[in-house]
Amino acid sequence: MTPILEAHDLALAFKGVRALNGVSFTVNPGDFFAVIGPNGAGKTSLLNVLSGLYRPQQGTVRFLGEDLSGVSPQERARRGLGRTFQNLELFRGMSVLDNVKLGAELAMGAYSALTPDTRKEWAIRRWAEEVLDYLHLAPHRHKHAGALPYGLQKRVEVARALAGKPKLLLLDEPMAGLSLEEKQDLARFLLDARREWGVTMVLVEHDLKAVLELSTGVLVMSYGEVLYLGEPGGVRDNPRVAEAYLGRSA
Amino acid sequence: MLFRLSQTLTDRWSRTFARTVRATYRQDEAYASTPMGRFWLWVALALLLLLPLLLPPYPMYVVVLIAIAAVGALGLHLLVGGAGQISLGHAAFLGIGAYTASHLAGPLAVVGILLGGVLAGLIGVVLGLPSLRIKGAYLAIATLALQFLADYVFKRWEAVTGGIRGRTLPPAEFLGIPLPGADALWYLVLLFAIPLFFYAKRLLSTRAGRLWYAVRDNDLSARLSGVDLTRAKLTAFAVSAFYAGIAGGLLANLYKSITPENFVLTFSIQYLAMVIVGGAGTVLGAVLGATFVVLIPEVLNAIVGAFGPQFAPSFAAWRNVVFGVLILMFLILEPLGLVGLWGRIRDYFRTWPLPY
Ligand SMILES: Nc1ncnc2c1ncn2[C@@H]1O[C@H](COP(=O)(O)OP(=O)(O)O)[C@@H](O)[C@H]1O
Ligand SMILES: [Mg+2]
């Protein structure tokens, strides 16, 4: 089985701040891979390197076996690398439906924009509705995304990303700021999507407990360094994690 | 176990529900899906076709001006309201269309107008290039530079533009039928305006609209959703300029004489005013805005007429002030423009006589 994502020896620094320092890990198809670490650990920087927004000073990223260096963010998205953001990045002035439709275009095949293709539009709409339905967003389809409550906006962002049928979806703290009930709902949606649509996921969290039982593999980071990489079962017993992370937050 | 079952049941139920709702999607996606809507669409079209029979010559001339301005405003609306870019050079593209049409006039009028649109669209791509690097006020200044450059070229490139004396056109013809006055030219204007109106609506409600709105709202997310920003922006500039070029060609055939004065900055600003006054977001707004902006001077002239010609010079001086104040009022009091105003009036009457 070829891994879906291989990060090798990534390093990234901002004027002296080492955001990533020799980070390597592998994600296999079907994984629900958790990246955990306190605030400032470098989790968002890692996702930005993976999705092509930051160029690492060292190291390589391979996606579906191909080296991604020099590949633009939009091309990575088209190849099946999806992404959601920690701070909401919705198209606020667009309806929920249009947000999801824009994502759906990645999956349904784009057409030349100046010659509207009714058949393609129809297919995009149907798939977008399926995703909306799946995430229980259908009643909100015609509302402006920016006008929704925070929890729903987060869900719209997940819907937009899932609508693109990504092969790998990078989720940056999708649970942050949600109520317990919303967190459980979202976790269920994500697990269902993984099972039904075969989406492999990398989920970033600062709360260790929230994701440990869901994940198939875990990377724990602190100050840009890898503290732990492996099965979720081994995290709690790891002395480095206990010292750097659990010790402080517990 | 019971939980699982109830969950499966609710999921099954919501799927079935979604399937029934799906039948109604078709209605969202069509323009006039209800029989009533279709009826009014045909009434409106019939009215447009009969207009020259119903209106005296001068009001008809003003209506033709409005329709031409609406085509130009639609183009700018796609760019400003759609892709969130700004342009102070819209009049320059009207000029490109107008001068092109002046060379292919009379029996070739339709070809000349179309070619003017295409040429303007191509040059629109050039105007779009700065938008790839800069935004907002800086982009406004860059487009202003193009406006001034175009002014200069229109005045100096005498072989093509006739310099400051400009160019004159013979009456347009369509399939051998001469279209001498505004009432006859009206049909040529409709030939372009109606399809362009529906095309603009269609563009905004399909992929092009989504790409443009995405660029307007969040370019980071747009990129990570696979949107090619360069392409989306340049397409918006090109389509916008194409509409302006068509409007310019129609205007040249209406005026039958054009000079650089017809395409100066003032008109670029008037087009922006149409888009702002018309209100954010809708194609109909651009048309209402065009109506409003074209009618202001006419109404002011009528007032002057009522007071007597001796007041004309002082009123002329005040005209631009009134114009400016009205635009400011819209910006401050009714940011959604005429469309927003109309929506509120409608809501008021819908709930009348019981507010809330
Ligand atoms: N664009 C940036 N410019 C400068 N420093 C940055 C930038 N992005 C992140 N950093 C720094 O890199 C470190 C890691 O940040 P981040 O990746 O956001 O962590 P996390 O997502 O784990 O909270 C922090 O010290 C942060 O200040
Ligand atoms: Mg972060």
Question: Helices, strands, pairings?
Answer:
The complex is a heterodimer of chains A (250) and B (356).
Chain A: E1 5-14, E2 17-27, E3 32-36, H1 43-50, E4 58-63, E5 66-67, H2 73-78, E6 81-84, H3 96-108, H4 118-134, H5 150-163, E7 168-172, H6 180-197, E8 200-205, H7 208-212, E9 217-222, E10 225-230, H8 239-249
Parallel strand pairs in A: 3-8, 3-9, 6-7, 7-8
Antiparallel strand pairs in A: 1-2, 1-4, 4-5, 9-10
Helix pairs in contact in A: 3-4, 3-5, 4-5
Chain B: H1 2-29, H2 35-54, H3 57-82, H4 90-103, H5 109-128, H6 136-156, H7 158-161, E1 167-168, E2 172-174, E3 177-179, H8 182-205, H9 207-217, H10 219-224, H11 229-255, E4 257-258, H12 265-278, H13 283-307, H14 312-333, H15 337-351
Antiparallel strand pairs in B: 1-4, 2-3
The structure holds adenosine-5'-diphosphate and magnesium ion.
Outline the structure in words:
The complex is a heterodimer of chains A (250) and B (356). Chain A has helices spanning 43-50, 73-78, 96-108, 118-134, 150-163, 180-197, 208-212, 239-249, and strands spanning 5-14, 17-27, 32-36, 58-63, 66-67, 81-84, 168-172, 200-205, 217-222, 225-230. In chain A, 37% of the residues lie in helices and 24% in strands. With 250 residues, chain A is of the alpha/beta class. Chain A has 8 helices and 10 strands. The mean pLDDT of chain A is 89. In chain A, strand 9 (217-222) and strand 10 form a beta hairpin. Chain A is globular, with a radius of gyration of 18 Å. In chain A, helix 3 (96-108) runs parallel beside helix 5 and helix 4 packs across helix 5. Chain A folds into 2 domains: 1-80 and 166-250, Rossmann fold; 90-165, no CATH class. By secondary structure, chain B is mainly alpha-helical. Chain B has a domain at 53-265. Chain B has helices at residues 2-29, 35-54, 57-82, 90-103, 109-128, 136-156, 158-161, 182-205, 207-217, 219-224, 229-255, 265-278, 283-307, 312-333, 337-351; strands at residues 167-168, 172-174, 177-179, 257-258. In chain B, the strands form 2 sheets. Chain B has a two-stranded antiparallel ribbon with strand order 1-4. In chain B, helix 4 (90-103) packs parallel to helix 6 (136-156) and helix 5 (109-128) runs antiparallel to helix 11 (229-255). The mean pLDDT of chain B is 83. Classes of the chains: A alpha/beta (250), B mainly alpha (356). At the A-B interface, helix 2, helix 3 and helix 4 of A face helix 1, helix 9, helix 10 and helix 11 of B. The structure holds adenosine-5'-diphosphate and magnesium ion. Magnesium ion binds next to helix 1 of chain A.
